[in-house]
Amino acid sequence: MERHHNSAMRTPLNSVAVQRRSKTKSYRLSYRSGIGAASRLGFTPGLTARRLNTSRKAPKSNKITEKVTKEQLALLVKTEWKLSYVTPLYQFRHTQLKSYSRQLSAFIAAEKQQGLAVDVEGTQNHFRVSFSLVQEMTESVDDAVTVLIQIHSKPLIARQDEPQRPVWSGWLTCINGNPEYLRSLPKDFICLPLFCSSEAGGLTSLVKSWFQQSFDCCFGPLEISHTSLQWLMALWTNCQPESSIRQLKMIWTLPVEPQLQVTYTVDAEDAWQLWSSVRKENTAGEGEENSIDIEEVMSFMQGLKGHFFRHFRLDLSAGRLNEVSTALGSAKHSGRIKFSNSKYMITTLMLLTECALLKMPI
């Protein structure tokens, strides 16, 4: 049985295997060429990046509401998404989305006829697919436009004229992807490395299967590493003056018997004061963007751990950080993310895109 320890603090001021078709050789050559180009920047063969960047831009408010439709934004925000990485898509065309909608609908119907269970609780068994673009949700000229996929069905008990409603959603995106790698890909490949999907696991598997067969790509699970969770804590806390994070909440697991789970909650102002105390002097010139480096993130974490140890005599360094959350969003080591505020979605997606590119195998 798990033991739970809760603390609210006042901080002092001080690879999935898939069957390949004839395009396998072409894909592998293109992928290796991307890695080869990146290796001159210190990257390592076998991965598009050896590790996360040690410095990144400080978060800035992004008026995404002026770029994304209200319907799309309502879906992207408040939903908890399961993360996967996706290798480059072969001959995917943003101009063919209507055709892809029909093809995926037919694919799901065919799988059902073969006896595959794709039922969604409380809905009828007829599904309609729609593909759409999330226009302008990019950060650089090399980013491909985000693609949103929705699967619709009617409730089990519905009037004949009642419209279908979404029962599954997913999207592929690339926000500020590594330009050296993106530019190295042949023109027949599109890189949308981050795949976010809602629940209904059967439908998620079907969508992935169709993409793999149609675009010779590969999906794999994307966990959010301990380091990435710490980056999110720092990035979100940095937003406190402009958009209150309300509180910084962490869930840790300590390796003791029985297992000990620690919930560690920090007041927003205390978190901000600690973060301010470890921030280096801003040396950015006029017109330049401020940045955050990994040393500041590590110092922030050491301050949080140190405070906890002084009060509870528990060393969190021996444990694993499983989840972090603020009013801006939440993230779990298991690979789940939730955006609660659209202003800083782009900052979070930049980090997740980097994670997805790092995770890709050859």
From TrEMBL:
Any one of the GO CC terms: chromosome, centromeric region
Cellular compartment(s): Chromosome, Centromere; Nucleus
Polar residues composition-biased segments: 8-17
Keyword Nucleus (UniProt): yes
Top-level taxon of the source organism: Eukaryota
This protein's record includes keyword Isomerase: no
Alphabetical list of InterPro entries matching this protein: CENP-L
Region (Disordered): 1-21
Keywords of this entry: Centromere, Chromosome, Nucleus
Principal place of residence: nucleus
Family, as annotated: Belongs to the CENP-L/IML3 family.
Protein's UniProt name: Centromere protein L
Organism from which the protein derives: Pogonophryne albipinna
